[in-house]
Amino acid sequence: MRDDQLTQLLRQIDEPAYPDDAFADRLFEKLSRQAGYSRGSRPMLLLVAAALLVGVLAVGAAVGSGLLKPPWLTVEVSPAPSVQPIASLEGTPSAAPTPPSTTPRPSPNSSPSTAGIVIDGLARSTVDGLTVRTEPTTGAVALGTIDKGQLGFVVAGPVSADGYAWYQLSGLGLPANTGCEPPAQTTPFAPCSSIGLGWVAAGPPDGQPWLEATTLPCPASPMNVETLVTRGMTPLERLACYRSTPIRFRAWFPEIPPDAGLGGTCGAVAPNPAWLICQGLSYNNLVISESAGFEGAGLQISIDPASGVAMPPRGQWVEVVAHLDDPAARDCVPLGGGEQDPVAVVLTCRSELVADSVNPVAGPY
Amino acid sequence: MTFGIERAGNEGMTPVRATGDPISLEALVRDPVRFRTWYDEALPRVYRYLLARCGDEGLAEEITQEAFVEAIRNRRRFEGRSDPVTWICAIGRNRLVDHVRHDMRGAARHLRLINARTDLESNAWRESDEREAVQQALTKLLPDQRLALMLRYLDQLPVREIAGLLHRSESATESMLSRARESFRAAYEGQTDA
User: Fold this and answer.
1) Same domain assignment for residues A112 and A204
2) Which residues touch B100 (CB under 8 Å, ≥6 apart)?
3) Binning pLDDT at 50, 70 and 90, where does residue A235 land?
4) Distance between CA atoms of A141 and A132, rounded to whole angstroms?
5) Which residue among B29, B70, B154 sits closest to A11, beta carbon to beta carbon?
6) Tally of CB atoms within 10 A around A40
7) Shortest Cα distance from A213 to chain B (angstroms)?
8) Domain-located, residue A350
9) Residues of A with CB below 8 A from B94's CB?
10) B125 touches chain A (CB under 8 A)
11) Domains of chain B with CATH codes
């Protein structure tokens, strides 16, 4: 059965369907209550919330820019006020429901910046409710927030705009660029399996920084692959740890079971570099033990055809020397048919392990 | 940005509005009459999307409710760049993935019940059309296999994205998809050959 035949067959069950009337009515009643149709208390609540907001602004709390949104300020207010940033030098903050009228002009690598934050390093929020935006400006769309302690992989920055130093962060609590879990897990963002991107202000020029550089414990070579995968390290954390420094580890190279049913394609047009973008089709899974199985916990490695590296026979322990951040990763481009962010695609490729050597060994460390 | 699911969610569905004008969910909610009209059109679309992907009416209703409640609760964050229904379908899809991923044991148990019920109630399936044969074949798949198959072949999501959703490696996802294809093919052809 070809793929297009399967698609045609499955489309047949995507037919009009109607839920039970009683269910439909119950749900509508629930939504109506949520919308506040049945009583008049909501406007008063909104007034109280708005008054609270204005009061906070009046005492000059450093939360009025819209960049810092403690949970008590994210009380749902209709319409949601959009406040002028304190650092914009626009004068008295107001609760006018319009974004700043001036267009910020980001100037790369200009001050202010936050000491210690480096590209390809990790940054951590020091506050709750730190807003993540699509662009480095307070006028950009807010994607959500991150809370104190949440990490980001620093992709770019600092960019100076609106009185703040901005950094582009990815992963580690940030959303996928496709909106990983809209919108339930954006305040704060829950970690997503995909690589997401967003811009975060590092804090006011003269105040407490909202972002700070941080590091994670990086297991040292040599090690077993279990160390790399069972400590909860994400691909971007590994990239921040090791960058292009070779890692030496041992792992089990499993047999492919007869019913694994491997197959698939990598886009309609072979991407470049296919060996890195489509490494999932090479089946170079390395797992933590003999009993883990072909689909068990472990890592995949990519092999550059030009490197001359070859995998040994399956069903044995191997010692791998591999690196992240292969130069070819910079050439990775989105596959056709999707709407992937090119920056995220390059990051994904950079976080893939590329083998320098793979040799049989007697067993794990 | 759009979801792969949004494209699929629109397939074969009548748009709530024929134009590409953005719809403000907040504005809809402020007008009870318009909201009811919209709801009556939107509910079957979301339910249909989820039912096709999980095959369980009860679960489809449960997740439909969660998705609508979540959407209305967060309606001010909806920017109106797409049809609200596709947004709600996306929320529902993520809820469904969570359900399948975190409740495989319960889902498998539920699947067995569905299979048993379907076997009892479907004496007439041989006389029915191809669509029912497809539905019957899908009941033979595990919940995660069915969902992966739907995401791949109905929603046309890339394997990498499905792997991310299901928290599996790409090769494991390819492997699961292959088993799902084979199971579906065997079940479907077994019925249509009979």
Assistant:
1) yes
2) B54, B107, B143, B144, B147, B166
3) confident
4) 9
5) B154
6) 7
7) 28
8) yes
9) 180-182
10) no
11) 1-102 (1.10.1740.10), 104-194 (1.10.10.10)
Last residue of a domain, one of A54, A88, A122: A88
Which pLDDT band, with edges at 50, 70 and 90, does A112 fall under?
very low
Interface probe, candidates B77, B136, B142, B185, chain A, greatest A C-beta count within 10 A: B77
Mean pLDDT estimate for chain A: 70
Of the residues A193, A214, A235, the one at which a domain ends:
A214
In a domain, A2, yes or no: no
Residues A116 and A135 reside in one and the same domain = yes
Q: Which two tokens stand for residue A38?
A: 């049945």
Which phi and psi angles does A249 have, rounded to 5°? -150, 160
For residue A165, is it within any domain? yes
Are residues A176 and A124 both part of a single domain? yes
- Supply the pLDDT for residue B31: 83
Say if the ipTM goes beyond 0.85.
Answer: no
pLDDT at residue A65 in the model = 43
B-chain CB neighbours of A180 within 8 Å are: 94
Q: Which of B35, B169, B173 best probes binding to A when mutated, by most A CB atoms within 10 angstroms? A: B169
Residue A268, CB half-sphere, CA atoms under 13 Å: how many?
4
A204: domain range?
107-214
Among B2, B77, B174, select the one facing A339 at the smallest CB separation: B2
Instruction: Tell me the CATH number at A159.
Output: 2.30.30
Mean pLDDT of chain B: 72
- What is the distance in angstroms between the Cα of B25 and the nearest Cα belonging to chain A? 11
Q: From A79, which residue of chain B is nearest by alpha-carbon distance?
A: B76
pLDDT tens column, A17-57: 888 888 999 899 888 887 776 543 344 444 444 444 444 34
pLDDT for residue A21: 87
> Given an 8 Å threshold on Cβ–Cβ distance, is A9 in contact with B188?
yes
Cβ separation of B91 and A184 shorter than 8 Å? yes
Contact list, B87 vs chain A (CB under 8 Å): 182
- The arithmetic mean of pLDDT across residues A86-109, rounded, is 30
Asked if residue A240 and residue A342 are part of one domain, the reply reads yes
Closest CA–CA distance from residue B135 to any residue of chain A (Å)? 7
Question: Which of A269-283, B13-27, B70-84, B114-128 has the largest mean confidence?
Answer: B70-84
For residue A153 the two structure tokens come to 């992989």
Question: Do B125 and B191 meet the contact criterion of CB atoms below 8 Å apart?
Answer: yes
Q: Which residues of B touch A342 (CB under 8 A)?
A: none
